[in-house]
């Protein structure tokens, strides 16, 4: 390789009803294709998590949303790892049988996938997750006992030497039936996603360690009309396997330059939904020398476009077109060269 690694970031914000990436790992095909045309791809759990389905790529970095924000700001770098020992937090509010299912899933990843897990900790108080929705239609939520979550994480870090944390919290089963039904049929917002982000953000912000979350829920009644985009969540008792796989190779966060670390000023391109450009990481990258590619087809519940923010971006219709822009950019070819008409150079003004 006679050039520096071409690095791209793929973001599909969680809980905003993205047409692609708003369901159960349905942005994985996009990530898989992008990983083939980039030297390094940085993305986040909402893109890569598919319940019991997952597809790890050697050149792809699994970075939790708060950590991705700090990375984009230039505050934190990413240090690749061969393997993280992953600690597991289980919400005391999970019923005994459902807890056993999750412990069995964790053991299965050790025996079948060869992952390294430390001990598990049950929180000293039920976490009491509550779900909310915003006027825009986006989902969010609250956690009643964040202190209990942080105590459990500290135990795993200090006593079990965990270098990444997976959390399983008991989520309400009585989700609004209309919202849930729409989501299962590929027409709505994931009602759990916003609350999940709150949980992982707490731990990453407090301990600067990789973290991701899997909700604990009773299995839903069988429905033979479920959308393929939501079907990964219909397969069993737990969404935990993809989280453990992602965290096992998640890069560590560093605050000082080290050998073989990645920093925000090395990011060549950012790919985002056209109507969801207002996130912290996106705004930070827009202030850097990063090519921003906004995808129209990936509609969301928001309407925050590059134009509304005064953000310079290349707007494309689809992720297929975005892949073409990435290939041209990496090759050092102007996308103007692909247009049938090219305007003449104009003289610069003094």
Give a written overview of the molecule.
The protein has 350 residues and is an alpha/beta fold. The longest helix has 18 residues, at 96-113. A hairpin with a 5-residue loop joins strand 7 (129-133) and strand 8 (139-143). The protein has two domains: 7-80 and 254-335, Rossmann fold; 86-238, Rossmann fold (3-Layer(aba) Sandwich), CATH 3.40.50. Helices cover 31% and strands 18% of the residues. The protein starts with 6 loop residues before the first strand and ends in a 19-residue tail after the last helix. It has helices spanning 28-37, 45-48, 65-73, 96-113, 146-158, 177-184, 193-207, 240-248, 280-286, 306-309, 319-331, and strands at residues 7-10, 40-43, 60-62, 77-79, 86-90, 117-122, 129-133, 139-143, 164-170, 211-216, 252-254, 269-273, 291-295, 314-316. The protein has eleven helices and 14 strands. The strands form four sheets. It has a six-stranded parallel beta sheet with strand order 3-2-1-12-13-14, with helices on both faces. Helix 1 packs parallel to helix 11. It is globular, with a radius of gyration of 20 Å.
